[in-house]
Amino acid sequence: MNKSVVIGIDFSKLTLDVTFVKTEQPDVKYYQQFDNTEEGCNQIVKWVKGSTIDCSGWLICGEYTGLYSMTAAMVFNSKGIDLWLENPQQLKLSNGIQREKSDKVDSAQIAMYAIRFMDRAKLYKPKGEALLKVRELVRFKDRLTKNRTQLIVPSQELKQVREEWQEATYIHTQSLEIVKVIDEQIKDVERKMLALLETDPELKRLYKLINSVVGVGMQTAIYLLIHTWGFTAFDNPRQLACYCGVAPFSKQSGTSVKGKSQVSHIANKKLKSLLHMCALNAVKFDPFMKAYYERKIKEGKHKMNVLNNVKNKLIYRICAVVSSGQEYDKSYSFQQISEAA
User: Fold this and answer.
1) Looking at the structure, do residues 109 and 156 belong to the same domain, yes or no?
2) Closest listed residue to residue 26, CA positions, set 110, 117, 112, 121
3) H helices within 212-268, ranges in order?
C-alpha cells in the first residue's frame, strides 16, 4: 500500500482530533478538531481536500473504539476512503516512552504510526447490520450479568456473616427478586440474538457450523462470531488462538534463560473463559478429547496445560468447519479411537 496522505484521528465521544500528513513531508503536520458527527466527518474530507483533492491517495487511521468510531467508519466508507481501525493496545505499545498526553498529540502519533506501518494496514469494511446488532445485544447481556453478580454475591456474604440481622435478610431477599428479573431479561436478550442470526443467512450458517463442534455452546458461538467479525478478522487458527490467550509462546534468552512455554496475558479474557468451559464439556462428552485428556494426565502433564491444549484443538476444529463449510462429524472421534486401538 502506497498512500500520499495519512490522516490520524483520535476518537472521543463528542470530538474528533485530526492530524494529516503528506508522506513526502512527514515533518509538516496539519491539525484541527471536529465534531464527532456525520457533518463533522464531511468537514474533515472537505478540509483535507483543500490540500490534496484525490481521495484515493488517502489513508485514515484511528483506534477501534466501538461506538465512538462507528459514525466516522460509515461516512468514510460511503465515500470510498480507505480506513484503518487499529487495536488501541497496539498503538499504545508502539509509541514508546511518552511525556506528553493530549488528544492533539495522540492524533499526530496515530498518523505517524500509519506512515511507519502502512504495509500492515488492514482496511475496515462495514459489517452486516445483523452482526452489529448482535454485538450490541451481547454487550447489553454482559452488563446484565455483571449487575447480577454485583447484587447476589455481596448480599449472600452479608447474610452469612450477619445472619441475625433482619436488614441482611431483607437485602438478600430483595436482591433475589431483582436477580429473577435480570435472569428473565438475559433469556429475552438471548432469544433476540438467535432471532437476529436467523435473519442473516451467512451468520445463521456460521453459527450452525460452530455449534456443531462438541463442547461449544450458544454463548461461545455468538462471541466467536462477533469477535472475529464473522471469521474475517484472522487469517489462521493460530492467530485466533493468540487472541483468545490459549496459544503457548516460548520464554528463552541466551544460554541461561530457558523457561517453559507460556500463554500470554494479552488476550480476550471473556473468550478464554468461555473456551475453558467448552474444554471441560469436550473432555466430558467427546470420546477423543476424553481419551486425549486422560492419556496426558497419566503421562504426568498438569491438568491446566492439558485443558489449554484442548482449547487449542477446539479452535482448530471450529476454524476447520468454518473453512470447509461442513458441520463437525461426531462419528470422527469414534473412528479415531478405534483406529488408535
Assistant:
1) no
2) 112
3) 218-227, 237-244
Q: Are 71 and 108 in a shared domain?
A: yes
Q: What is the mean pLDDT of residues 205-210?
A: 95
Q: How far apart are CA 109 and CA 207, in angstroms?
A: 39
Amino acid at 26: P
Can you say whether residue 263 is alpha, beta or left, with left for phi > 0 and alpha for psi between -120 and 50 degrees? beta
Statement to judge: residues 12 and 93 lie in one domain: yes
Single out the residue of 237, 202, 213, 247 nearest to residue 321, CA to CA. Answer: 213
How many structural domains are present in the chain?
Answer: 3
Residues 50 and 110 in one domain: yes
DSSP, res 251? E
For the cut 60, the answer to whether the pLDDT of residue 143 exceeds it is: yes
Residue 217 lies in a domain: no
Residues 53, 13 share a domain: yes
Higher model confidence: residue 336 or residue 148? 148
Give the strand pairing for 58-63 and 5-11: parallel
* The predicted structure's pLDDT at residue 338: 47
In the β-sheet with 5-11, what is the strand arrangement from edge to edge?
Answer: 25-35, 15-22, 5-11, 58-63, 82-86
3-state secondary structure of 29: strand
Distance between CA atoms of residues 227 and 64, nearest Å: 13
Model confidence over 210-238: pLDDT tens digits? 999 999 999 999 999 999 989 988 889 99
Domain termination residue (choose one: 120, 140, 173): 120
Lookup: cell for 101:
498526553
Nine-digit cell at 25? 513531508
Domain residues for the domain of 38 are 5-120
Residue 214 counted as domain residue: no
Amino acid making up residue 253: S
The average confidence (pLDDT) of the chain is 89
Q: List the Cα angle 326/329/334 in 5-degree steps.
A: 160
Residue 81 to residue 73: CA distance in whole angstroms: 10
Other CB atoms within 10 Å distance of the CB of residue 195: 11
Do residue 134 and residue 116 come from a single domain? no
Quick one: what percent of the chain has pLDDT higher than 70? 96
